Fold Aspartate aminotransferase family protein.
Amino acid sequence: MSTDLMPNRFTPGEATIPLRETELIARRDNVLGSSYRLQYRRPVHFVRGEGMWLYDPDGRRYLDFYNNVPSLGHCNPEVNAAMAEQASRISANTRYLEPRLVDYAERLVGTFPQELNRVVFTCTGSESNDLALRIARLVSGCEGVIVTSHAYHGTSAATAMVSPNLGDAVKLSPAVRMVSLHGPAGVSEKQAAAFFEEQVRSAIADLNRRGIGVAALLFDSIFSSDGVWVDPPGFIAGGVKAVREVGGLVVADEVQPGFGRTGKNMWGFELHEVVPDLVTLGKPMGNGFPIGAVVGRKASMDRFGAAARYSNTFGGNTVGIAAADAVLTILYRDRIKEHAHVMGERLRAGLEHLAIRHPGVRGVRNAGLFFGIDIGLDGTGAAGRRAMALEIVNLLRDDGVLISTTGANEDTLKVRPPLVCQAEHVDRFLEAIENALKKAAAPV
Amino acid sequence: MSTDLMPNRFTPGEATIPLRETELIARRDNVLGSSYRLQYRRPVHFVRGEGMWLYDPDGRRYLDFYNNVPSLGHCNPEVNAAMAEQASRISANTRYLEPRLVDYAERLVGTFPQELNRVVFTCTGSESNDLALRIARLVSGCEGVIVTSHAYHGTSAATAMVSPNLGDAVKLSPAVRMVSLHGPAGVSEKQAAAFFEEQVRSAIADLNRRGIGVAALLFDSIFSSDGVWVDPPGFIAGGVKAVREVGGLVVADEVQPGFGRTGKNMWGFELHEVVPDLVTLGKPMGNGFPIGAVVGRKASMDRFGAAARYSNTFGGNTVGIAAADAVLTILYRDRIKEHAHVMGERLRAGLEHLAIRHPGVRGVRNAGLFFGIDIGLDGTGAAGRRAMALEIVNLLRDDGVLISTTGANEDTLKVRPPLVCQAEHVDRFLEAIENALKKAAAPV
């Protein structure tokens, strides 16, 4: 396992790469910082995108079941038209009055529980989480942050320091504490909730004992990098309550689960019936345009705003707002979350059917179109399960289907198709994964 | 003075505001986080932009001599066309191969001294400075950062903590040290260099004495928020040398001065004949599209990349790259920096002429089209000078010209027109500022 915990990465020499890509990789290595990683044993090379598909220079198409930014499909023409139209009119910043910013802000907070009625715009999910940490620390007067044991919350200095998923080489903050999501296998739903609360309470006690105090419980509401965890609904409630008792803020990171991906709900936290203090947004918000936001309660936002100005040059510029506004319009007009729910049910039924026939599928978890599929044959250890998951990801890539891995042991397939996927795409994916499972399970 | 040191902000009740704007401000306050600030006593309201001009809903136009993002003019049609064309083709991320990213990266590093040959893309100047701090801290193994006494380097937690310009309410890092730019007035050029070096050496000594060590000297190469300082060329060299002696990295923040604004040079640091270890980019890079970058030496980038992956979902996406590529093409094709130099000379000559007739102009500093104009009548103290500068900014706003203030006492006018400004715009600005000076200096 690489030090940075990204098994699905390109490693030079591991596989045979065509000359055209070898040359491009060499040029890339010669000019881009080495912190860049390519995905897959044989990296993919795309020059065109449309809806669910990405095309390589030879016109071969790949079914995208991985990218959660273009939720409304690659190169969505309506979003692009809105962006182009606004770019030709004005790209205003937030220090000038412009009605479109206010119109969209009102629409956006209207999709949240009424307590969450203030918004600040950013450009990326990392900026959103970074700002949420600033707000939580200023409001609470404390530094401590509680995250899950494999959490990823961003690339900025402050968010990377609370992202154990980045691996040993990226230093964690002395003020961060990690909590496990689940106790031993086979615990009841009630036990899972108790286990989580107990972990949070013990993190709080430790932070207080050291004089650090608690600023926030920061959690991705579908626990994407912990392996995609959904059930039991409400299992985080006790932990949330414990954090609030000591004045900490509850921050839901909706950068991945937000904007309808979880199917029935617009926001992942709704599944747990928790109303956070701050909610962070990013990725699909502009279907590819760099825009994010922090939505929160007035009291916290006012407390922060009274002390600190926050001026993000590009955050809230009207071109990004136009893209985000078009996204929100389409999400509601086309009933995208309801559609994601229906497609999620179809995919889940297919995977469960597959699990009966294929011992390599150990479990399936999902909310809407965010899936975690646990991989591994009985009797193989952690390394074997991880290797099998990685093998399936690369077999699918060679078969023209894009996914990746997640989880503590990276033996869970991470499947997140654009929300506009149709039955035919789901069926194509099921066929492809069945073939990959057969090959991966066959004796070499 | 407000706690956040932003005098040129809207304060409710200070001036009479038309009903349309009052209503929009009320809606805005009811949905945006209170960390937002509007500029000017009577906020401006824009619905259209074109070239050097911004238009309010009544069609009244304002000459933009302030915004340094749309360097090639508001709503530049060529940049917008490049963006729209790429958005209709593919918005690829950096984990897939795509030639356009590599092509642009090669072009971009080609504009730097040859030692600076690696690039990592971000979405904002804040993200660029934040990443530079991460790299400098990992490479040096130390935490200490030396900045100028009124520096501003961004909105992220880590950059805000090294930005004394944000005011007392935003906590500074225990690892930051501030250095003054200039000693007492009237020192020689040689003395200015010695003064800066002495300040840096004493910051280093203090950081080492406390076991914090030195990660970086981080400086905006035109010292925008310190009041726009240019002369004497090379005055930072001794400080740079001192930081390198102890293993610290030299980071030039080119978010404001970069991409030809300083006239003769593409990058502000070139004036000082210093080759930094890392250079951070943002604002005008995509003429409004959110894109930034860190350009650096291979050794530092490799050291960071070996330990840490850096995956910025939107950073380096091909739509932003297309916008940035179009910007670079136009900058060279239309000889924009040479043009900025010529227009800067015209503006400077006009201001110097004005200074002879108007005692309110105490000094003019510039490189290309980045100007600092010191304001204040003899015998008035700091508060009087600040008030006069603020009055001029607001008189200009009412006359349809946009600028703002900067500097330790915020008594310096900050003037940064888009680089495509023509002689007629310079002359219009000179006429407007002369009128404003007369009014501001007149007894009430």
The mean pLDDT of chain A is 95. Chain A has two domains: 19-74+336-441, 77-333. DSSP finds twelve helices and 15 strands in chain A. The longest strand of chain A covers residues 116-122.
